[in-house]
């Protein structure tokens, strides 16, 4: 099939209007990559749970688990780069001189992933001139382990994969006065971010607690999505 025919297919498939579509672009690759309207993150639910169902309830065991203590939630982390930061034991709120058997040990568990937009079929002129909306979504569990259990940092990076062109950061404070165990949605739309974007770096941190047993904070539905449109101002 000729290049112009692949280009026409792209125009029809995504109803592209007012967007530069140079002849030098490999339109067959773009059409087959289907860069619009799909999640560009790999493995968006590494803990095997979905925001469409309630977070799993945890059952305390009668005796402490055998074997070495866990340091991260169970899951399949294919596609993610993970790391752990130990925050140590939390003795806040313990009166002086009081003898205690256990203290909570908190840690941050970080998952990050970088999306190469060109490798996913998004072409230079689209990113530089039209600057389509880049949609970010995530759902984290109300684990109620601490007032700070989730952090999100998403960066739009330049051609060198290092220069930050735009950034979104979120670090919510949880309400612990009443019990609640649901998914909380986080969303953001990058628009009019300027020319030069080639990568999206997605990073979130989840707080876990170990006190006799391991108590994680779960996450699901992580999303990076490019639209063939842009927000109106």
UniProtKB/TrEMBL annotation:
Source domain of life: Eukaryota
GO terms of biological process kind: ERAD pathway; glycoprotein catabolic process; SCF-dependent proteasomal ubiquitin-dependent protein catabolic process
Xref: InterPro entries: F-box-assoc_dom, F-box_only, Galactose-bd-like_sf
Pfam families listed in its UniProt record: FBA
Residue span of region Disordered: 41-84
Domain FBA as annotated: residue spans: 30-228
UniProt GO molecular function: ubiquitin protein ligase activity
GO cellular component, one term: SCF ubiquitin ligase complex
PANTHER family: F-BOX ONLY PROTEIN 50 (PTHR12125:SF1), F-BOX ONLY PROTEIN 6-LIKE PROTEIN (PTHR12125)
The protein's name: P1, F-box associated domain containing
Organism name: Oncorhynchus kisutch (Coho salmon)
